[in-house]
Amino acid sequence: MNLVSTKQILNEAKRKKYAIGAFNVENMEMLKACIESAQYCNSPIIIQVSEKSIEYIGIGLLYSMVNACAFSSTIPIALHLDHAQNMNLIREACEIGFSSVMIDSSEKGFSSNVQDTLKVMEIAKRYNVSVEAELGHVGGKAEEVESMYTPVSRVKKFVAVTQVDFLAVAIGTKHGIYKGSPQLDFQRLKNIYESVDIPLVLHGASGLSDSDIKQCVVGGISKINFATELRRKYTNSIKQVLEEKNELIDPRIYGKVAQKAMSETVIHYINICGSGVEDEC
Known about the structure:
By secondary structure, the chain is α/β, with parallel strands linked by helices. The chain has helices spanning 6-16, 28-41, 51-57, 59-71, 87-96, 110-126, 152-162, 186-195, 210-218, 228-244, 251-273, and strands at residues 20-24, 45-49, 77-84, 100-103, 130-135, 166-169, 200-202, 221-226. The protein has an eight-stranded parallel β-barrel with strand order 1-2-3-4-5-6-7-8, surrounded by eleven helices. The longest helix has 23 residues, at 251-273. The protein is globular and about 60 Å long. The relative contact order is 0.16.
């Protein structure tokens, strides 16, 4: 199967009231863990890469790996550029065949965010590529940037002016590892959902409770991003293997262990999102 339109599978998720997991990958093992887990669950999946991941792997090699996995799979697979700010890279991703791109101008003012989104929409439209933008700001990460809640009063205008395909909203989540329990604003999510008719995206889901994730799906989230927890599972499993077998030098051995650990996490999240054919895959 060829790579599919992110907009198409998210519109289907919105219509049927489930969410699709969007999983960030940094290497072949992480990619295989995600694809094979989704195939096992017979679930659509979105593979995400950041600007730093593209810098690390190379956009051509990365695209070829994902495209090869899609070709040999029977599930819908989309490839998404996550949190992009480099217009040249966005253009390159559209040209090479990405399913969707995210323009992240969420730290800018409303007008600048709108203008940047319109520029990306113009680029992406030429290649039939879907576009995600963010209104409000999901903070966190190493720099400890604070979150800024999505202003409900501006959502409708932002979507109407930009015609963006799906929108990331800030309701209290953060990127990276949480310090304490996040307090999500589900009423804000409800108000946003009722104000626009496009799929909504949740960033910073790693570390949320299963019940919070499920409530976000019920509240109208159609795409849920997972990155930190995947890295944690992947890295910790390798650490454990090398601690137990410090003479081990074959990356294929500990790579398989890491892939298995990550697969269990991906399957769990797919179940929580409700995108698999079975209730428990």
